Recover the amino acids of this structure.
């Protein structure tokens, strides 16, 4: 084959990659990667005995149509129903059935991805407000996109804003830190638990209490607040999805056992419990790190040739000014942080292959501080002819 023909052949391939609009990507390619924890995580394999031994062949839904715990039947509701069924029988409730005519639900669970593709977001948000205001408890797992959290009931003037799992980097090993003492956290054995988190809260109601924070960024991943007569427990945890994918940890089992106890409902006699030392010391809250770092992006699944837009975020929790050196993709720049302040760096780049963006942070004396990464996937267009 002549060099000219080879050149033309390569040029045709390049045009195909750079012109994705002419070809339809496989829907399966998107759905396979569109779940919490799909951003190339690699820390769960290192936990060993810290993982809860999920017995997949014996898992089934623990359904009771009269249960006072309802799982909203959307998103990963099957996973949420099976996970919470470890502790207490549940029932499923559809968007059309909510809210029920009677106050027969004490706890409503929004599963991971449960606020995606609702038929009527406005109606459902209003129904959530009424349910919690009249005394219901609401538990929310990680959501696909951060804007969905704005549907949650929130005290006047400050809605919940966040980054969802398509925008944030998932993590598991010692991912979180305790920010306060609370009955929900009372079963935990560590102040830095292994929790499946994918997402972070950016703005929360003034009356909310931050129970858990991301260990590296210092930003909230579990908040608790009153609304009317009820309570909202909003999280970026995807423990429900992780359960059927053998990623749930004993820390998460203990956390949600404590949560069910906090609601006042009895645990099932068959509920799992970890054999821990009865005389263990009470846990202490962990202060936010002096400096916090994270990377968010506008997506984590791109067509080849798309532009990926990243936001590198820095927080200074100290009472002194800091100067941080940031390295990424062969670039380096200094960022000045005033006391108790934050800064964002924007970075855009065309993407052609699945990989991670690595970012390295150094202090004023060029002493290494932290490495963070943002994983993303690239899919290639497929022609109608396969």
């Amino acid at each position: 084959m002549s060099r000219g023909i080879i050149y033309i052949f390569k040029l045709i391939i390049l045009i195909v990659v750079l012109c994705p609009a002419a070809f339809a990507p496989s829907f399966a390619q998107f759905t396979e990667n569109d779940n919490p924890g799909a951003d190339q995580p690699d820390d769960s394999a290192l936990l060993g005995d810290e993982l809860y031994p999920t017995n997949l062949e014996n898992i089934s839904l623990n359904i009771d149509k009269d249960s006072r715990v309802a799982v909203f039947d959307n998103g990963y509701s099957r996973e949420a129903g099976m996970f919470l069924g470890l502790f207490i029988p549940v029932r499923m409730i559809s968007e059309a059935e909510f809210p029920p005519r009677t106050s027969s639900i004490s706890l409503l669970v929004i599963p991971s991805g449960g606020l995606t593709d609702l038929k009527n977001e406005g109606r459902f948000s209003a129904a959530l407000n009424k349910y919690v205001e009249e005394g219901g408890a609401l538990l929310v797992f990680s959501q696909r996109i951060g804007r969905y959290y704005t549907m949650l009931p929130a005290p006047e003037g400050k809605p919940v804003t966040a980054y969802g799992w398509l925008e944030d980097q998932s993590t598991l090993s010692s991912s979180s830190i305790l920010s306060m003492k609370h009955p929900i956290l009372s079963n935990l054995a560590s102040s830095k638990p292994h929790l499946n988190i994918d997402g972070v809260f950016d703005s929360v109601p003034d009356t909310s209490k931050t129970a858990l924070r991301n260990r590296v960024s210092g930003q909230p991943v579990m908040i608790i607040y009153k609304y009317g007569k009820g309570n909202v427990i909003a999280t970026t945890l995807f423990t429900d999805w992780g359960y059927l994918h053998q990623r749930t940890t004993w820390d998460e089992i203990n956390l949600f056992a404590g949560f069910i106890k906090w609601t006042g409902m009895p645990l099932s006699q068959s509920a799992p419990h970890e054999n821990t030392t009865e005389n263990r010391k009470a846990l202490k809250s962990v202060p936010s790190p002096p400096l916090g770092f994270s990377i968010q992006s506008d997506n984590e699944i791109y067509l080849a040739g798309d532009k990926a837009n990243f936001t590198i975020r820095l927080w200074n929790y100290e009472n002194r000014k800091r100067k941080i050196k940031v390295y990424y993709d062969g670039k380096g720049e200094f960022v000045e942080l005033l006391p108790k302040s934050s800064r964002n760096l924007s970075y855009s780049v065309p993407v052609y292959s699945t990989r991670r963006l690595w970012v390295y942070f150094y202090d004023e004396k060029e002493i290494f501080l932290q490495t963070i990464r943002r994983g993303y996937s690239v899919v290639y267009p497929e022609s109608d002819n396969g």
